[in-house]
Design goal:
The complex is a heterodimer of chains A (215) and B (227).
Chain A lengths: L1 H50 L15 E3 L11 E8 L2 E14 L2 E10 L4 E8 L51 H35 L1
Antiparallel strand pairs in A: 1-2, 2-3, 3-4, 4-5
Chain B lengths: L2 H13 L10 H7 L3 H25 L8 H23 L1 H7 L3 H5 L2 H11 L4 H31 L1 E2 L3 H5 L8 E2 L8 H4 L1 H37 L1
Antiparallel strand pairs in B: 1-2
Classes of the chains: A alpha+beta (215), B mainly alpha (227).
Chain lengths: 215, 227
């Protein structure tokens, strides 16, 4: 019996030992890398934000002027996010909203939705996603121009019924093999437009005030 | 090259090829092999992880209690993969942007665990490293051929997406095998992967059967000469 106990104890201690070493290695690597990863994510985000708006349509520093966006179900934000007002000569021309499509094929799809002051879409980009490589990843601009079909669209163009992928009777293209992914993105973009419509005055006013402060 | 080393290389690339002989780790294999670039990227990332995982397990194999070896192997593989993921993300961003999305898929690839259990837990560091490497390369070979088949028949191109890995300069390296090709959806979708892999397995078996026949004819001749 004591032989068995000894065996169990040795096994348990070895397993514990491996877990502790594994945890230590992981937290060490995390400490070593997390600031570099944050930097590279921020840099990548800046590039993406700039892509959601036409070049030269604003003259402010988008990332510096970022403002908090309260958590909101329409935007899929469970925690407060950010939005980036774009202005030219102190006048707000567009805003870029952070939005999340919660119902991607494998989890959340993080988006940036650039909306002109008139309520039409300037551009949409995917910031982060975990869709199947080679199937659902065509929502990335690097892989496919698919995401550009939102440009110029608004709540009334196409009509509400047509804010769907073609398979569901709407106006938006999709690539065969992955329908859940574009469905989630189309819905999230439409919801972001809806949010903009409801909060238009706050979003644009706050932005204008901000640029006055800067001056 | 010692006989043992040669044995490990031949096993990984041909005799025990993970893709067409052991038929292990098919879930990521079949999902990703829709183009050459995707397939090659996943293959190389898997090779890296397999070489590291086999080496790590070979190093500590004597400290692992027999009864809990599988959980310990999984712990080691998952730790390594996460570390590789974080380190690549932090220090080799361009490479990460190409391979990054594939790395978490490797944790669930059972070929890694299979080689650790079947080989690295019983052998020395150098041989285990070589085995992980060769099994990974064997898988890469199958993936790349399968990716090429699916891409040519599915999209009519070869090496599309190469510019993601090597910058816009690589754009002109994309080969349009059939100009104005309409595309064959079946080849791109998962059934295409199964059909393609089936053809590859059949091709390998066919080559093996020819070789076996030649070998038996040779021994047959040798016997006739003797009599």
């Amino acid at each position: 019996m004591s032989e068995l106990r000894r065996h169990i104890a040795i096994t348990a201690i070895a397993l514990l030992g491996f877990s502790v070493v594994g945890a230590a290695l992981l937290s060490g690597t995390f400490e070593l890398t997390h600031s570099a990863i944050e930097d590279s994510e921020r840099a990548a985000k800046q590039v993406l934000i700039a892509q959601t708006l036409p070049a030269g349509s604003y003259d402010n520093d988008l990332v510096r002027d970022a403002r908090t966006l309260a958590a909101d179900a329409l935007l899929g934000l469970k925690r407060p996010g950010l939005y980036y007002p774009a202005s030219r000569h102190g006048e707000t021309t567009a805003v870029v909203l952070e939005a999340i499509a919660p119902d991607g094929y494998s989890g959340e799809i993080k988006l940036l939705v650039g909306i002109h002051a008139d309520g039409s879409i300037a551009g949409v980009r995917v910031v982060a996603h975990r869709e199947t490589p080679g199937l659902g990843d065509y929502i990335e601009i690097a892989k496919n121009p698919w995401i550009r079909q939102f440009e110029g669209k608004s709540l009334s163009n196409p009509a509400a019924d047509n804010w769907r992928v073609k398979k569901d009777g709407g106006r938006f293209d999709y690539l065969a093999g992955a329908t859940i992914t574009p469905r989630a993105v189309v819905k999230a973009v439409r919801n972001a437009l809806d949010y903009f419509d409801r909060h238009q005055s706050e979003l644009l006013a706050a932005a204008a005030k901000e640029s006055q402060n800067v001056r | 090259m010692s006989a043992e080393t040669r044995q490990i290389i031949v096993d990984g690339l041909w005799k025990q090829n993970p893709g067409v002989v052991q038929i292990l780790g098919l879930c990521p294999t079949l999902a990703i092999s829709s183009s050459v670039v995707n397939a090659l990227s996943l293959g190389l990332a898997t090779t890296l992880v397999m070489a590291l995982a086999s080496s790590a397990v070979a190093l500590v194999r004597n400290a692992i209690p027999q009864a809990v070896r599988i959980p310990v192997f999984i712990l080691i593989i998952a730790t390594l993969v996460t570390m590789v993921d974080l380190l690549m993300h932090a220090f080799v961003l361009p490479l990460y942007q190409v391979l990054g999305i594939f790395i978490p898929l490797i944790v669930v690839n059972c070929i890694v665990l299979a080689r650790v259990e079947a080989f690295a837990s019983k052998r020395g560091l150098a041989h285990s490293f070589l085995d992980g490497m060769m099994m990974g390369l064997g898988l890469t070979l199958v993936l790349t051929v399968l990716g090429a088949m699916r891409e040519v028949f599915g999209k009519g191109t070869l090496f599309s997406g190469l510019d993601l890995a090597f910058g816009p300069a690589a754009q002109h390296l994309v080969i349009h095998v059939f100009p104005d090709y309409q595309g064959l959806l079946l080849a791109i979708l998962p059934p295409g992967a199964f059909l393609g892999l089936g053809l590859l397995i059949a091709a390998r078996n066919w080559i093996e059967s020819i070789r076996a026949r030649q070998a038996s004819e040779r021994t047959g001749q040798a016997q006739t000469v003797q009599t």
